[in-house]
Amino acid sequence: RKAMGKKDPAVMAAQRDRFVTGSLANGLSAKKAGEIFDLLAYFAGYGFNKSHSTTYALLAYQTGYLKANYPRYFMAALLTIEAQNTDKLSSYLGECRDLGVPVLPPDLNLSALPFTVEPDGVRFGLTAVRNVGDGAILSMLTVRSARGGRIESLRALCEDADLRLVNKRVLESLVKAGALDSLAPADEPLTSRRARLCAALDRALEHGSRIQKDRDRGQSQLFGGGDGADDQATTDALLALPDADPWLESQVLAFEKEAMGLYLSGHPLAAHTQDLAKAGARPIAACTESAADVLVGGIISGVRQVKTKKGDRMAAFMLEDLDAAIEVVTFPDAFRTYASLIANDRMVLVRGKLEGSDDSAKLLASEISPLSSLNEKLSREVAISLRTPSRSLLEAVADVLMRHRGDRRVRLDLEVRDVPQPMRVRIDLAAITVRPSEQLVADLERVAGVGAVKLR
Q1: Three-state DSSP class for residue 245
Q2: Cα Rg of the chain (Å, integer)
Q3: pLDDT tens string 141-165
């Protein structure tokens, strides 16, 4: 019984001779005793008594029924239970995609502490945002309730929330997760809204602390002795969201990963899907059968560096694409060559031997390269879109292009609006060629705006 309970084949095998000998002593034939023992050994692989099996079957039926008939409620409960486990949370969000259950982003004016069901989908729970404790969340939800169900501004939040709990670290995490997007102008892109909210935190917290101290002292106005309307206008002007350089799309996604452990508004690999297919990279979900040579693209996570018995360094990590993940092992020879590329959140291409089985797969890396190298291999031109370009803007773009000289052509798409008849002009810059790279795109977008550059 103990050998069966441990489900250890070696322990079971050691009991075979003893079982057969005892069976012979009780009048059974050796053949019959062997058949009985084989049945016991098979049952030991994964066996339950009937009561255990029945309760498991009932639970499986109940949860299966809920998932099939009430998928939003089922997934909301499951996501709430695993809110602190990033790996499982990411996996279950993928399950939501497969089930057709929309996952709505966190929003201070709509989210609750757990994941909740709304007419349009499952709303991301604030409890899953890192560095934001339940006490801080409850304080902010109390403010929302007291203000009629909606907080209109960062200033209003800081005036009424418990700032011992809702501190700068908490607010920064909420901004990075996108939970405060509704406190900024709705007509601005996310890249601008989040940058401006982050720039406003210090001033808003200072104002909120001062207001709360005045309130505790029984003072009703921030500025004593002046006209109330003038004081309010002055305060509004001081606390308007300041101008700030928009974050890059890559920054927005990186901050979401930092705040929630996953990407929600997009995925860094999404822009590279076609390039990966052109390069012959295999989707990780398709890496199920062994192969001598496989190319896979993804984002590195969970890097673990270890030493072999000889003292040589090697590494293992998870490589994640849009839908799945695979373990990658880098032995000492490959690690010495590619160690500088093995870092969390780095986007890479990995070539190697795939060892697949029924329940797991592993990639033994022989070559690692930055995913940005695809830009140089596949892009034929750099297209830049400029709206109402000024002389200074064109000079700034030219300066960036000169710093990235290469052999690929550049195309300018100009949209001129400040003339009686607006027009669009396309210019091929035959005299300037560049080397396509992520750094080139980032440098150009700082000058021309997010989304103004395409590699084709």
Answers
A1: coil
A2: 30
A3: 999 999 999 999 999 999 999 999 9
Residue 370: CB atoms within 10 Å: 16
What are the residues whose beta carbons fall under 8 Å from the beta carbon of 104, sequence distance 6 or more?
A: 110, 118, 120, 121, 122, 123, 124
Q: At what angle do helices 168-177 and 249-260 cross, to 10 degrees?
A: 120
Token pair for 6: 């441990």
Which pair of structure tokens corresponds to residue 423?
């027009």
Task: Report, at the CATH architecture level, how domain 270-372 is classified.
Answer: Beta Barrel (2.40)
List all residues 6 or more positions away from 427 whose beta carbon is below 8 Å from its beta carbon. Answer: 411, 412, 414
Q: How high does pLDDT run on average in the chain?
A: 88
Per-residue H/E/C for 148-200: CCCCCCHHHHHHHCCCCCCCHHHHHHHHHHCCCHHHCCCCCCHHHHHHHHHHH
Question: For the chain, what are the domain ranges?
Answer: 2-45, 102-249, 270-372, 379-455
**Residues 82-118: pLDDT tens digits?**
998 887 888 888 889 889 999 999 999 999 999 999 9
Burial tier of 429 (Cβ tally within 10 Å: 0-12, 13-18, 19+) = middle
pTM: 0.71
Query: Position of tokens 């790996």?
Result: 87
The residue assigned the tokens 């980032």 is 442
How far apart are the C-alpha atoms of 149 and 112, rounded to whole Å?
A: 12
Q: Which residue has the tokens 């007509």?
A: 187
Closest CA to 291 of 364, 200, 372, 346: 364
